Amino acid sequence: MLRGSRCETAKCPMEKQWRQQPPGMHAFRRGRASEYGVRLAEKQKVKRHYGVYERQFMRYFHMAERIKGNTGTGLLGLLERRLDNAVYKLGFASSRASARMTITQGHIHINGRRVNIPSYLVKVGDKISVKAAEKSQKLIRSRLEELGEPSLQNWLALDMTKLEGSVMALPGRDDVMIPVEENLIVELCSK
Predict the structure, then answer these.
(1) What are the strands of the beta sheet with 156-159, ordered from one edge?
(2) Are residues 122 and 60 in the same domain?
(3) Strand ranges, E, within the chain
(4) 180 and 165 in one domain?
(5) How far is Cα 76 from Cα 57, in angstroms, rounded to an integer?
(6) Do residues 76 and 180 make contact, with C-beta atoms less than 8 angstroms apart?
(7) Which CATH number fits the domain that encloses residue 70?
(8) Closest CA to 156 of 182, 123, 131
(9) How confident is the model at residue 99 (pLDDT cuts 50, 70, 90)?
(10) Position 179 in a domain
(11) Quick one: pLDDT at residue 150?
(12) Which pLDDT does position 178 carry in this prediction?
């Protein structure tokens, strides 16, 4: 309805079949990404998935370097342990951005105390609960009904009646759902 008359011809920009190429007239000359480009793309994928900025990401990387064991697995474990990620995985929010907003507005408590910092790292044994106020309870119940039954990972447990989740164990490499090669990130960041 709002399309122009040009969309009724074969030259319609919405219908062109060659959209697989990147924009520009010399797109066919672009070669493979360099080694640096491949590593940077992996890092950017992880940063965008978890919604962290460069400085935060590098802070997590330096923390992961100090952890015994594989640095890449430690990095992904730290990012999984963020409170906004845990709230999203419990089903209290529809996305990580929504989880950050829910946390900063004060709807989430950890071990009975209000925490309004989305980057808070949860520990084993922490109880993540919803504020006792009726408004908060109603908001989270509506989100849980919207999403249906959340598919919990083995490091989290959820009590639907109390609206309370608990951290049973630290997340491992198997709990990270995005296809990422963490060794490329370690190679890029350790320079």
Answers:
(1) 113-114, 108-110, 127-130, 164-167, 156-159
(2) no
(3) 108-110, 113-114, 127-130, 156-159, 164-167
(4) no
(5) 11
(6) yes
(7) 1.10.1050.10
(8) 123
(9) very high
(10) yes
(11) 73
(12) 86
Number of domains in the chain: 2
Beta-carbon contacts of residue 23 (< 8 Å; ≥ 6 apart): none
Q: Which DSSP state fits 6?
A: G
pLDDT in tens, 59-75: 999 999 999 999 999 99
> What tokens appear for 120 in the block?
């808070």
User: Is 90:115 a contact under the CB 8 Å cutoff?
Assistant: no
- The residues, ordered by sequence, that sit 6+ positions from 99 with a Cβ below 8 Å of its Cβ are 83, 84, 85, 87, 88, 92, 93, 118
Place of tokens 């890449």: 72
Contact 90, 156 (CB under 8 A): yes
Query: Do 139 and 163 reside in the same domain of the chain?
Result: yes
CB 104 within 8 A of CB 116: yes
pLDDT of residue 31: 72
